[in-house]
Design goal:
The chain has about 130 residues and is mainly beta. It has one helix and eight strands, in the order αββββββββ.
């Protein structure tokens, strides 16, 4: 009976820590970065917002919000690397999951500069450039 009471107390303490703002562990650990993309095919470009939500040490869920050819889009996926300094790469899918894109580059002082590519049959074809933050 004592083990059960201790387990319940520890579980409640963990929930309380997650609920307190300013603690080491927060459920909403998202970082928004504004930027721009250039689409090499057809010479399109535009602004975008990227939301990175930490899932571990150097791993992220990512969502890109942007308008392309007069249509709003949200591509979602995952990323690995640093948002402050170092390499950053990821993979996102279109809303209908019919296309996959990768992005890769370097972050310097919080500014990402890189490229994006479409993945077809396991091969990447560069589709343009991407900047975020700064």
């Amino acid at each position: 009976m004592k083990k059960t009471a201790l387990s319940v107390a520890l579980a409640l303490a963990a929930v309380a820590l997650l609920a307190l703002p300013g603690t080491l562990v927060q459920a909403d650990d998202a970082q928004k970065l504004n930027g721009a993309y250039v689409w090499d095919q057809g010479s399109a470009n535009g602004e975008l917002e990227a939301v990175f939500t930490a899932t571990g040490d150097g791993t992220w869920d990512v969502s890109f919000y942007f308008n392309f050819r007069d249509e709003d889009h949200i591509y979602t996926g995952t990323a690995e690397g640093s948002l402050s300094n170092g390499a950053l790469a990821g993979k996102v899918q279109t809303e209908d999951k019919q296309a996959t894109f990768t992005f890769t580059g370097t972050v310097t002082d919080g500014k990402f500069t890189g490229t994006h590519a479409r993945v077809r049959n396991g091969e990447e074809a560069k589709t343009g450039t991407l900047t975020l933050g700064g």
